[in-house]
Amino acid sequence: MATNLRVVRALGMRSIRQTFRRPQLMAPIIVFPTLLLAIQTGGAGGAVDLPGFPPVQSFLQFMLAGAMMQSLMLAGNSGGIALAVDIEMGFTDRLFAAPISRYTIVLGRLAGTAALGLLSALWFFAIGLIFGTEIEGGIPGALLAIALVTVTAMAVGGLGAAIALRTGSASVVQGLFPLVLVVLFLSSAFFPVDLMIEPAKTIAEYNPLSLIVEGVREPIISGIDASDTANALLAIAGIVVLGLVLSARALRHRLRVG
Amino acid sequence: MAKAIAVEGLERAFDEVLAVQGVDLEVGEGEIYGFLGPNGAGKTTTVRMLTTLLLPTGGRASVAGYDVVAEARRVRASIGVALQEAALDPLMTGRELIRLQATLQGLPGAEGKRRADDLLERVDLAGAADRRVGGYSGGMKRRLDLAAALVHEPRVLFLDEPTTGLDPVSRKTIWEEVRTLNDEGTTVFLTTQYLEEADQLADNVAIIDSGRIVAEGTPASLKAEIGHPHIRLQLEEGSIAAAEEICARIGPLLPPMDGKTVLVEVEHGAADIPRVVRALDEASIAVGSLELVHPSLDDVFVAKTGYHLEQDGDESDEGEGAVTE
């Protein structure tokens, strides 16, 4: 057990170093969401005055959760790409040939993705605070939002890892990038569901990502809400289970096909 | 002798294609075993099964006494693996890689650091240890890969084409390291498409072609199967016919390579050279050059497979060995 934890930590550290040393992996996690946040808050800030828009201090306060979601989704995607690159260059063979549980290889990658999710949450909270955003849930609310973002990054990373293990192709995982954005736009990440038009509204209502977004957003814009938090945790648990099942199947497949 | 590797009827199918077909082999403890064959012959597939990276679809195999399917984790704890195309992360430093490998093998932190320092020194990479692997030369990458495979002092070391694409100097450095490791008691399973490499290093050699082992034995015994050595004589064109007539009395003539060469098989090797020289001298035939040629593994390869295993790896960066009909 102790050895497995050391392996997960070592692989997680490698994953983080890899992201910082490869700018093309870092850019989608921090640079793109920050730019989009700047463009949206600068260009669509008046949306807060629309009838039906939830009461917020500013559009930036509303958008912080969306930016964090975008960042963690792309962190999960980047983690999948990095794992696929490892498979392509044979690095995973080095890991598979070691006397460790093969699940620690996936967990190590997810630990790294979770750390990047944490970094992303801290980064966007820092931006919010610099531009005068108030966190209505106070420090407990901020900690809850940070924890949800971190865990969601790991959950989404599980899906990225499963696709990487199944396909072994970085270009396939990279090809999911537009899909990630579609899933984000069809959720409450960037706009309130109540103000959307059909069919986007219905899709967003059933999109589990919306539940997570609201779980992260509520502590920022109005305070901790037990019901929103529970819904977010439920959605995260669903993604975790899906990611674990798919990863386990993909690992078995990889061993069969070599 | 105890068996470090025992393989019986090993098979691997990919859909309809049988990449490895009923391979049987045994490798003794402390032996260097050369697994020789062209690209696509089934070498790497066999190694991947023996290192638990790929499940066999038939037969059985044990490494270090453990079954590769039922006791895979024990196998992995007993082996070191340096796979083809050194599987290194170009963004890591050499030191980071060795330390990660030490963690993967369950070494405590302090011991892992000590082993990393020792191994980097041993493979002459201490000076480059904190540079990213992406900036290493091909030879440095291979040495680093080898060092990583040794971090837990494995009983059995698998080297999959360890010198493919390397320059001759780097190749010799790897050979020396393999010999040293073997002297220290490590069993080495070495796949190669270089005949000279197998000849120089291996105690026993298996030749694999189209997924089947077509020959196995010591390099000397395999060559002995092929026949006796021959003497290659370079002569002036006008004297070829006379020289052939004289040499034919000493031993059977082999097909000539060109119009200036006579090849004669000799039963007693070097001991027959004076006879040949005397006979030609008595007939006043001038000899340009004379060479005693022993059967090579290439001759064995040709005899067993019907084609040559081309040795052009010095120019190859891709590790692609060409097969010529």
What can you see in these coordinates?
The complex is a heterodimer of chains A (258) and B (325). Chain A has one domain. In chain A, 79% of the residues lie in helices and 0% in strands. Chain A has helices at 2-21, 23-43, 59-88, 91-96, 102-130, 138-167, 170-174, 177-185, 200-206, 208-221, 226-257. The two termini of chain A are 27 Å apart. The model of chain A has no long low-confidence stretch (mean pLDDT 88). Chain B has 2 domains: 5-221, Rossmann fold, CATH 3.40.50; 228-293, Lrp/AsnC effector binding domain/regulation of amino acid metabolism (RAM) domain (Alpha-Beta Plaits), CATH 3.30.70.920. In chain B, the strands form 4 sheets. A 6-stranded mixed β-sheet of chain B has the order 6-7-8-3-9-10, sandwiched between helices. Chain B has a 4-stranded antiparallel β-sheet with strand order 2-1-4-5, covered by helices on one side. The radius of gyration of chain B is 23 Å and the shape is elongated. The two termini of chain B are 39 Å apart. The A-B interface holds A 3, 6-7, 10-11, 14, 17-18, 21-22, 86, 89-91, 93-100, 255-258 and B 14, 45, 48, 51-55, 73-74, 76-77, 79, 81, 83, 85, 87-89, 91-92, 96, 99-101, 103-106, 109, 132, 148.
